[in-house]
## 1
Amino acid sequence: MCLEIQKLSKIYHGKVKALDQLSVRLEKGIHGILGANGAGKSTLMQMITCNLQPTSGDVLWKGSSIFENTKTYCRALGYMPQQQAMYPSFTPVEYLSYMAELRKAGKDRIPDILERVGLSDVAGRRISALSGGMRQRLLLAQAVLGNPEILVLDEPTAGLDPYQRVAMRNLISSLAAECVVLLATHVVQDLETIAQDVLMLDKGKLICYDSVEHLCRSMVGKVFEISMADCQVPEEWKVSNMRQSIHGEILVRVVSDVPPDGYACSPVMPTLEDVFLYLVGGGG
């Protein structure tokens, strides 16, 4: 079971290169997609879900092009979009039954799926009356209806409280044992917690593809914490975090190849957010 992306490119209006010669091979497990706005994440996901044709390159599923064998591929695909476009007058049971009809999937799994995403107690309530977090979990429920072999998740934890985020991550982890999972999110902590590796994009290019552990380890000695009396931080610093200590001073977390001159600082353990800031820089 393998999703193979081969020199995938997308050029809009003849000049805007949203994706540039991206190649990667994805096996079972959770693969995070990380990048600033405009990095190419959405373009990549739209092509992987067959909603957008590439300018060049291909995506192979079990050795066959997904663009030439779309029907077969889509039967193996589960997709959770970021937008909550659902029928407000439906109940979760009605919505999942409707989606099962469209996909020719069995309805017998619906009670179990609702239980797994924590929606059994609101299964008969109208979607319009559900919270944003509940709707988010319902989107995941419809994505796993047909026992997908590849699962594409776009911001799956958006709008969830901390408890719900943990539950969602645990559910996604349990699904990853049997399928290829692509998870795009701005919540870096989610990727640190459950992704086995990360595809980091910048301006349409794949700038790194590695395990979270190795990426963080490669940054050891390049992340420092500096104690300052005020917030007058030099503009050239790459600051990943600022916080006030219990003693009142400002603790500034700086990503740099060498310790900033003229300041007392101490090295700290890198996070995936530090890696992203180091490799990509500012947001776009």
Note: DSSP finds nine helices and 14 strands in the chain.
## 2
Amino acid sequence: MKKIIVPTDFSAYADTAADFAIKIAKEMEAEVHFLHIFSAPVNWKELRPEQEDLYPEIKKNFHNANSSLDHLTKKANEVGVKAERTMLFNEGRNAIDQHINEGIYELVVIGSHGTSGIADVMGSNAQMVIRNSQAPVLVVKNGNKFEDIGKMVYASDFETESFKAFPVVYDLWQLLGTNQLELLYVNTPGNFLETAEIEDLVGEFKKEFPSVEMNVKHYDSLDVERGIVQYAEHNKSSLIALVTHGRRGVNRWFTPSVAENVVNHATVPVLSIKV
């Protein structure tokens, strides 16, 4: 990963995500890019300096946003991380997706305010970032600390599509220096597999990555999301990774809503990877 993007509205949860992104960038020798959408009832970007004084409150908000972006950039630079900043004016939330999906970013880091749902980022629903981003998305909860990342769990159905996401998970695990990586299959009543069938799936998965030592677990639950969250809680996992797919008609494991629901209820950071 060489470029990381952080959409921010300068709230506490967004600042937590920014801190996470800076520390990840330092570990990976990557760049970090801060993105903010500034909304105003006038076209602020086109105003002449003398016209700005007609809107003192908007002018104050603009300067605060500008200063906040400068602060984040400086914070990254102080620890040796190259940083860029972008302010978009009066753009809809689709502009976030367009910016993220320019093809130059390998990771998106966004913030969430807790377990009651994903917080809004720049007045839009961050769930749509998970749903539409072509790059992996790391959702960080307010209060999460980069230094606390230890055990990491990758939830998978071990089908062929999931092979594409695992190298991203494995590289991140190695670069973050986490002490343990577990692979998880959640067995549900609606898609129940016998132990032998799960072992066959896992066996094929292991053949794709023969040099990787895998600690594979399977966990019974009423649904996939509930099983992932419960397993992470019971086993003190400090980061959850899972794969999503944008196409219809695929295994339910691959629907973006699974990632969204896991994020809504997990208390630890969640990495969603689209394949």
Note: The first strand starts at residue 3 and ends at 7.
## 3
Amino acid sequence: MKKYPFRFLLFLFGFAPMLLWAQSPEPIESLQTISFGSCNNQEKPQPMWQFVVQTNPDLWVWLGDNIYGDSDNMTVMAQKYSKQKRNREYIKLQKQCPIIGTWDDHDYGLNDGGKEWKAKRASQKQFYDFFGLSAINPLRKRNGVYQSYSYGTGDRKVKVILLDTRFHRDSLEVRGVARNKYCVPNMQGDILGEEQWKWLEEELANSDAVINILCSSIQLIPDKHNFEKWANFPQARLRLFELIKKTQPAKLIVLSGDRHIAEVSRFDLEGLDYPLYEITSSGITHTWPVVKEEENPYRLGDLIIKRNFGLLRINWTAEGGPKVLTEIRGLGNELFLQQELDWE
């Protein structure tokens, strides 16, 4: 019999299984409160975390720009992620609940970047290190950071699907004027890539969750502004709507970030048995420098141009099935916006 060093055996039979599943969310019997947000600059003051913690979330979901990395130097990226993880109030959130998420452009490494980014695979490693994914987890070999998690069981099951809108995204024509930066859509361009499209169809079609949450770093429903959004890729946006109609997942909610504002949008998608809601929460550390109007015919309530984070509060015992209340909150836990999601 071949002899192995004691340290190797200890790793193989003791630590290896722990390392493989170290990133898995802790078992949650029933999600009551889900908090989420995006656009967090690790170099800026971060007083928002103490107010997130005060809401006692069962889960935190990053919607992208978890740090502002903007570098192809992975030593620099690692240092920026490390600074974020050392934030005293963020550490409290880490101890309070599981943390999952996707990325957007700044933590991807390239502002407004897509599939052309030369450092995307190296950046993916830093991303997974930040979330504590083990070195031997098969997700690290995936082309992109898309993944899904399920919480609860039976009639209290929630599925969270995290999309990657960067790794496979085609290019856009850039105009010089800031307010019209992406006014020319890529009519045939794609966002997800065929591998991720196939995965997403399986995730939606096979979901037995009572509530499904689809997380996209960029906005899906709003289509009037000239910044990054799904509507810059009309064929991809239509394909996603058609996929949602085809698979008919129960009570699908879209979460998005990126915009440094917050808003709730409702879209009546023909062929879907209920209205599609999107909650955008963005601007944990910074927002627009000036207050201005922005057209969105799907918006419910106000456009929030203040630093914010979002909440989904699930009432599982409501008559007629679970009810979801979404909130947008800010510094001091000030309530900016509250909207019940009416699926009738």
Note: Residues 26-341 form a domain with the Purple Acid Phosphatase; chain A, domain 2 fold (CATH 3.60.21.70).
